[in-house]
Amino acid sequence: MKTVDEHISDILGAVAVLPARRLPLPTVHGCVLAANVRATIALPGFDNSAMDGYAVRAADVATASEDAPVRLPVAGEIAAGAALPPEVAPGTAVRIMTGAPFPPGADTVVQVEWTDGGTETVAVHRPAERGLHIRRKGEEVAIGDLVLTAGTMLGAAQIGLLAAVNVANPPVHPRPRLAVLSTGSELVDVGGRVGPGQIVDSNSHAVVAAAREAGAEARRLTGVPDDPERFEEALRSVLPEVDAIVTTGGVSVGAHDIVKEVLTATGEVRFERIAMQPGKPQGFGVIDGVPVFTLPGNPVSALVSFELFVRPALRRMRGLTGSGRPRVTVTVAEALRSPAGKRSFPRVRVTRGEDGGLLAYSAGGQGSHHLAAAAGANALLVVPEDVTEVEAGKPATAILLAADPTDGDLAAAVL
Ligand SMILES: Nc1nc2c(c(=O)[nH]1)N[C@H]1C(S)=C(S)[C@@H](COP(=O)(O)OP(=O)(O)OC[C@H]3O[C@@H](n4cnc5c(N)ncnc54)[C@H](O)[C@@H]3O)O[C@H]1N2
Ligand code: MOO
């Protein structure tokens, strides 16, 4: 059998980063920047006030105190958005609002709390040193400065910064578009009537959700019949519209395993047995440039193999590396068994124990069909191929499913 690592490296070797595109700023949250961005405007763009108050000359208020306030005539007002602030003559004050352009002539801001708030004349109770509360043009970002580097993941602050420097269409690696096909004549669409021998198609919904968590744009391809020709037709017709395809079911050795039947016949997808539990039967290939993953139909097998094989591939397409999941060392709280010669991924709940260490409890049944247990898990334990029994109290590696910190320091800090 092929190892998990060999399969991952074959997949990553066949999957490429999606080419950079300029996309509208409102659509790029969670995308990776594909090129360096330099500022074409400064931040701040002009000298402005950091406080609501009065623009004055520091020398005019140097003697101000509670007992002997300095009174100055208020010569005008500057609101945020004012284009040409008036010059402040010696011995006068101009009311100024936060973000309003700082006027020539003045050299400091007295915040309104240090005054009586007057509009004709103002009584200033405290002196203000020169330069106080003035945000200088280009103080943080000068024109031509590198503001974000290629490879940066665009989160809220980065999106804000791109907007601030007026980049409407940043160059990014787009989100991969994924189509998900579930096959099986026993499947009923969610909300439908479940007849004898039938089950609700849960895989396509779970895989779409997992794909979105991995940063892809995913959609279900519904109405794919369990007929080899029509399955192939559906698959080929969606190829030009997507960057990847995931199917679930139909890859083992059953008489109606059409995914395997069709794609083996074309020779474009390789079906292999991977030394893992769950998720042994896997298929992967590239059809017309589109990576196609055929995952096993058992619901937990589909999710675990998505996590291990599809998620890193989607991240690579997005310009990221790795799985984006923290791997931590935990103490196994309950003894567990694992099949010889296979890497197993028991579904567990990781919690912090009283001594501050991390403990992993089984999330429930460990069968490939035990979806309720998977739904209660927040981590996958990783039990190596040569281990058949893990005793309680022993250390093990766990892949945390709940958090997706992209920053290694953050990953270490969240737990
Ligand atoms: N004789 C053998 N039988 C099986 C083997 C084997 O080596 N020899 N491997 C087993 C393993 S391991 C797995 S995993 C499964 C993989 O089966 P398939 O990928 O062919 O999937 P199906 O047979 O279509 O379904 C398996 C199971 O999952 C349920 N299922 C399928 N699709 C969905 C869906 N969209 N939503 C929810 N549940 C789904 C299906 O009803 C079956 O119960 O094969 C084993 N058999
Ligand atoms: O390899 Mo299967 O995924 O165990 O149920």
UniProtKB/TrEMBL annotation:
A single GO molecular function term of this UniProt record: metal ion binding
GO cellular component: cytosol
CDD domains xrefs: MoeA
Cited InterPro entries: MoaB/Mog-like_dom_sf (IPR036425), MoaB/Mog_dom (IPR001453), MoeA-like (IPR038987), MoeA_C_domain_IV (IPR005111), MoeA_C_domain_IV_sf (IPR036688), MoeA_linker/N (IPR005110), MoeA_linker/N_sf (IPR036135)
Lineage: superkingdom: Bacteria
E.C. no: 2.10.1.1
The protein's required cofactors: Mg(2+)
Entry coiled-coil feature ranges: none
Gene Ontology biological process terms from the UniProt entry: Mo-molybdopterin cofactor biosynthetic process
Keywords for this protein: Magnesium, Metal-binding, Molybdenum, Molybdenum cofactor biosynthesis, Transferase
Catalytic activity: adenylyl-molybdopterin + molybdate = Mo-molybdopterin + AMP + H(+)
Domain MoaB/Mog: 179-316
Pathway(s) where this gene product acts: Cofactor biosynthesis; molybdopterin biosynthesis
Family label: Belongs to the MoeA family.
Its job: Catalyzes the insertion of molybdate into adenylated molybdopterin with the concomitant release of AMP.
Protein name per UniProt: Molybdopterin molybdenumtransferase
